[in-house]
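Module 6 notes. Inverse folding takes a fixed backbone as the condition and produces residue identities as the prediction. Think of it as a translation problem where the source language is geometry and the target language is the twenty amino acids. Below is one complete input and output pair. Work through it position by position during the lab.
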């Protein structure tokens, strides 16, 4: 796997990388759900 930190990988999962968001709080709930989903495992990079 590459050297991308797990927190950055989670961010890539929850955000459309080319989209503008009104607030970072929009990403908090999906990010927490993904943290639980990948707990105890390495966070993979999203596809696509």
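Target side of the pair, the amino acids:
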């Amino acid at each position: 796997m590459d050297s991308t930190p797990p927190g950055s990988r989670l961010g890539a999962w929850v955000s459309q990388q080319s989209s503008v968001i009104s607030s970072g709080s929009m990403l908090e709930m999906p990010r927490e759900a993904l943290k639980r989903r990948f707990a105890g495992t390495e966070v993979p990079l999203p596809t696509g």
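Reference fact for the lab report: Helices lie at 6-14, 28-37.
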